[in-house]
User: Fold Large ribosomal subunit protein bL25 from Motilibacter peucedani.
Amino acid sequence: MSEVRITAENRTEFGKGAARRTRRAHRVPAVVYGHGGAPRHISLPGHELMLALKTPNVLLDVDLEGESLLVLPKDVQRDPIRPVIEHVDLVVVNRGEKVTIEVAVHTTGSVAADALLVVDAQTVTVEAEATHIPTSVDVDVEGLPVGTQIHAKDLGLPEGTTFAGDPETLVINVVAQQSAAQLDADLASSEADLGIVHEEKSADAEADAADAAAPSEG
Assistant:
């Protein structure tokens, strides 16, 4: 579990105008909440925060004017165009406290040559100590044959981490690869369901198309 120390400042101005001024100063508006305390409005250095958030479920040790706060990013709002974080919600946690959080599923290896890997669940919900949250749940799929299914209950979780969702959730599904003929048939079926009809070309039209595609002589 990654833990990053970052320095914050209290915010005393609120509203859209104040938020824009904070961002112009290359800082990110944030709200800290949790454990029954009143929400606290702070700002964080934009570049340092962006680097920290590259690690999934990073734990932030926030130095707020001499006070230390241990927090997890809960909601990160990003600019849809520019690589800028606009706002972040942070939830306070205590060392040793159990938290429920989404963790990404990461596969290693390749399935059998005639098989296709389908990851049905990109994330799984786990419960872990706040200071020992796994960055991912790794699944080895090397050589798995067609028909193999891995459910949440089958995952190998790190020590101290337990699954918190439906244990029957399908996570990995290994299916047969489709041939070109099967793909064409599926496409034709889908088009038929949508009412799409392709007009058949006449022999004369096909001949004209062939003449147009042929290189001219002389």
